[in-house]
Write a structure and sequence with these properties.
The protein is an alpha/beta fold. The protein has three domains: 280 residues, Rossmann fold (3-Layer(aba) Sandwich), CATH 3.40.50.2000; 164 residues, 3-Layer(aba) Sandwich (Rossmann fold); 36 residues. The chain is 48% helix and 12% strand. The chain contains 20 helices and 13 strands. The strands form two sheets. It has a seven-stranded parallel beta sheet with strand order 3-2-1-4-5-6-7, with helices on both faces. Strand 8, helix 12 and strand 9 form a beta-alpha-beta unit. The radius of gyration is 30 Å and the shape is globular. The N and C termini lie far apart (148 Å). About 4% of the residues have low confidence.
């Protein structure tokens, strides 16, 4: 027994020695300092961007985020610097949204308004950059960041953040790759089959001549708008860097973006070539396992087992006051008459459209968690990109009521893919709304198609969160990963389209043609003149 005890002690000491020896060669996992700048006034944008940095915080990285709005997504490793807009700016922004809500408005109209009569969305973000709470970050030389993740929303001037902190830049974008972000990483413009934000097509569809012409015209217009935006952003960038003239120029910083995270997935289409610096993280805001619902919502859904439930939300930007009273009454009349229970996102709980027993009004909704519930049968949506991603991920068919910006295009995509139907918000009638809901609820093809797509959307080698973590750490490890940069970011349109080469070829062919023409004329004249000379003259 004594021998066994002695042997045991020797064994324990040996194991401890080996453990210490091995530990001396094992380096602890290092955590990076990451800066997130997410100054879009849209809550839905913030949800996507915060989901990106939350994945990094969960991995143990230290994250500092600067926002205009208080985030609804948190983690103990995230430090939030909140710079809320002034009441005046907030009122202007609400007025802009209300203006777009009261009539049909596509992405082009919204951009024109922003660049001409109402730059509040741009200006309120710029004002945060010159706020003392933000400038204190880079005035304190002890603040060192390994990478900056910048939320894109018509704010290229924020590239100055990378210049001031001398760190790599990752851009976070809430949709599929588009004109603005493509230029940052050199994605080619495949205008003959890649849709713009103003056009939609079914995945894999080949366009005829008319559709290609239409897309070319839309693409050309958006390209022109992008050039205007670039000029405007250059002015803002100059203001941010005026006191530090040695910082890189705006054009140099546009060529210094390491990655772009796009909240999309190839299964959504269009199928197109993308550079390695374009990382698709479609559904980054969707939880792998839904959180427990608030008790009142959980109970409401539990009582919906027989007929199922419907979720109705017009997004985070549309307020109750933006909906015309006559439209509101139509919506309430139809929803309150359904046998399904309806969860309705509604801001002013003290003044609801009505008190139907089958409707639960909520100021804020855990939308992703609700869409994950098995007895949710329909999502009535404004066709925002985030909501569509969540709905398709969970296999819930939709009735789309697009209002402005990219929503009309997104809605067309829903219809083309067979995931739901669309109704006109501005000209909404009781009959059209009721028929749309009935069609999706009673025709199983919509649910079948969206569930089939859900399987495609989920089937990927790496989850969106793991993609964010891997590629962010990759950029940090390789100090910007310049080796992944496409040569296209350093080329202007003439160079990238090979126009100078084609011009040289045409000029050469022209010169050769002219020389051959002259030679032919010379030879012809010699032969012709000799024949005339040899021909006997008439008497």
């Amino acid at each position: 027994m004594q021998c066994f005890g002695a042997c045991g002690r020797v064994l324990l000491v040996s194991v401890a020695f080996v453990a210490i020896f091995v530990a001396s060669f094992v380096q602890p996992a290092s955590s990076a300092n990451i800066l997130g700048v997410f100054l879009s006034p849209s809550p839905s944008h913030l949800i996507v961007h915060m989901s990106v940095v939350k994945a990094l915080a969960e991995k143990g990285h230290n994250v500092t985020v600067v926002t205009l709005l208080k985030p609804k997504i948190y983690h103990e490793n995230i430090t939030n610097i909140l710079i809320p807009p002034t009441e005046t700016d907030q009122a202007k922004y609400e007025s802009w949204v209300a203006e777009l809500s009261n009539g049909k408005s596509n992405i082009l109209h919204g951009l024109v308004v922003l660049l001409t009569t109402n730059r509040v969305k741009i200006d309120m973000q710029f004002e945060a950059y010159v706020d003392k709470r933000f400038t204190a970050l880079y005035e304190n030389r002890d603040n060192q960041f390994d990478v900056a993740i910048l939320g894109y929303a018509l704010n290229y001037y924020q590239l100055a953040v990378g210049a001031k902190f001398n760190c790599p830049i990752i851009v976070s974008w809430v949709q599929q790759p588009m004109e603005g972000v493509n230029a940052l990483v050199g994605n080619p413009r495949e205008i003959s089959y890649v849709t713009t934000l103003m056009n939609a097509k079914a995945t894999g569809e080949a366009w005829n001549f008319g559709k290609r012409l239409e897309n070319y015209l839309f693409g050309t217009i958006l390209k022109g708008v992008t050039l205007i935006i670039d000029h405007l952003m250059s002015g803002y960038y100059s203001k941010l860097t005026a006191v530090e003239p040695n910082l890189p120029t705006f054009e140099a910083m546009k060529r210094n973006v390491s990655l772009v995270f796009c909240n999309s997935h190839y299964s959504e289409g269009p199928i197109r070539p993308l550079t390695p610096a374009t990382v698709l993280i479609g559904g980054i805001q969707i939880k792998e396992k839904p959180d427990a619902l608030p008790k009142n919502i959980a109970n409401f859904l539990a009582a919906s087992q027989k007929n199922g439930a419907i979720l109705f939300s017009l997004g985070s930007n549309i307020k109750d006051s933006h909906i015309k009273p006559e439209i509101l009454q139509i919506i309430y009349k139809v929803l309150s008459s359904l046998k399904q229970n309806v969860i309705w996102k509604w801001e002013n709980l003290a003044n609801t459209p009505g008190n139907a027993s089958n409707i639960l009004y909520q100021k804020w909704l855990p939308q992703d968690d609700i869409l994950a519930q098995p007895n949710l049968r329909l999502f009535i949506t404004h066709a925002g990109a985030g909501g569509i991603a969540e709905s398709t991920f969970h296999g819930v068919p939709m009735v789309a009521i697009p209002i402005f910006a990219d929503q009309p295009t997104n809605s067309k995509k829903i219809v083309l893919e067979g995931f739901g139907v669309e109704v006109d918000f501005d000209q909404l009638t009781e009959r059209a709304f009721r028929n749309a809901i009935s069609e999706v609820l009673t025709n199983p093809s919509y649910a079948n198609k969206v569930k089939a797509f859900s399987r495609l959307y989920r089937d990927r080698p790496m989850s969106a969160r793991r993609s964010v973590v891997y590629w962010t750490e990759y950029v940090i490890r390789h100090r910007g990963a310049a080796h992944m940069q496409s040569p296209l970011v350093k080329m202007n349109y003439i160079q990238s389209a090979n126009l100078d080469v084609y011009l040289l070829i045409l000029a050469t062919l022209f010169v050769v043609f002219k020389l051959l023409h002259l030679a032919w004329r010379y030879l012809w004249s010699k032969v012709f003149d000799e024949k005339i000379a040899k021909k006997p003259k008439e008497k």
